Amino acid sequence: MSDKSYIPSSDRYSNSVGYNYCGKSGLKLPRISLGLWHNFGDVDDANEALKMILFAFDHGITHFDLANNYGVPAGSAETNFGKMLQKHFGSYRDEMIISTKAGHDMWPGPYGDWGSRKYLIASLNQSLKRMQLEYVDIFYSHRYDPSTPLEETMGALSDMVKQGKALYVGISKYPEDKAREAYRILRENGTPCLINQDKYNIFTRAIEQSVLPLAEENGIGFIAFSPLAQGMLSDKYLHGIPENSRAAQSYGFLQKNQLTTEVIEKTGKLNDIAAQRGQTLAQMALAWCFHKSQVTSVIVGTSSVKQLQDNIDALKNLHFTDEELWRIGELG
């Protein structure tokens, strides 16, 4: 597909996934954001990757979530996304929210990991080069670094905004006490934190008592990653572990030993609740994330256009009765 053949849908906003304000900022994010953690690297199907990006944009998904180490090899997701932007989205950059992160191992030696000023600034410069961009919309500290003063890490984020290399900044996977301190430092620097990104799903709910209330207290948006618990909250594993599934691989974050008999029994019961709602388990799991008002957006990671459409369809039923929430909570 050439750039001349791609014309975005004229009703991509009127027929879109819908938007929420991100905390107390003026920025709206789509309720569903597309994550490029998996399926956009050099080892993946480039044609399907492009189809997913185009399909997402045509349905009002304006936010694309990346990190410096996404893709196999690390960095390839940003490189491939940058090529797509240049070829197909040159006229639409101002309609897109592009985020990236730094905080995990990226290159050899003492300066390619964690949260030092050296690493964060070098990483963002590399990310901009890979994506062929002048700036990103959101730049995150991808994880808290216990060995680096927060003033240094947050100072680097603030300077990236002041230099015009990022419009907003955020944090990801920070402990509650460190998040509180990070919010204070960024606010005092004149570059308030826009958003917090953390894992949130039916099986992972600890942030409801800490991260979510703190974000609301500080007027900060929240975006959930892994809303399907790496695929456990889908019909993929209801009857065991398929050969080509993520859990069947020897690498990655979802391993066979996580899919215990108890977990499979729980997903079966959750699947029954979803069926009664007229949804797939995955759709219910995505919709469930929005039962907390602090959730601005959820990041989905899809391997096909069909899967992305199924995820979007989750938004057709976001209402939960008290009984449904109680039953789901008992299985979480």
Largest sheet: 8 strands, parallel, barrel
Indicate the CATH topology. TIM Barrel
User: How would you describe the shape?
Assistant: globular
Number of helices: 10
CATH architecture: Alpha-Beta Barrel
CATH homologous superfamily placement: NADP-dependent oxidoreductase domain
What would your notes on this structure say?
With 332 residues, the chain is of the alpha/beta class. It has one domain (3-231, 288-320): Alpha-Beta Barrel (TIM Barrel). The chain is built from ten helices and ten strands. It is globular and about 50 Å long.
Summarize the structure.
Helices cover 35% and strands 15% of the residues. The chain has 10 helices and 10 strands.
Please describe the topology of this protein.
Elements: E1 19-21, E2 28-30, E3 32-35, H1 46-58, E4 63-65, H2 76-88, E5 97-102, H3 117-131, E6 136-141, H4 150-162, E7 166-172, H5 176-188, E8 193-199, H6 211-217, E9 221-225, H7 261-276, H8 281-289, E10 295-300, H9 305-312, H10 322-331
Parallel strand pairs: 3-4, 3-10, 4-5, 5-6, 6-7, 7-8, 8-9, 9-10
Antiparallel strand pairs: 1-2
Helix pairs in contact: 2-3, 3-4, 4-5, 7-10
Features:
two-stranded antiparallel sheet; TIM Barrel; alpha/beta; 35% helix; 332 residues; single chain; 10 helices; 15% strand; eight-stranded parallel beta barrel
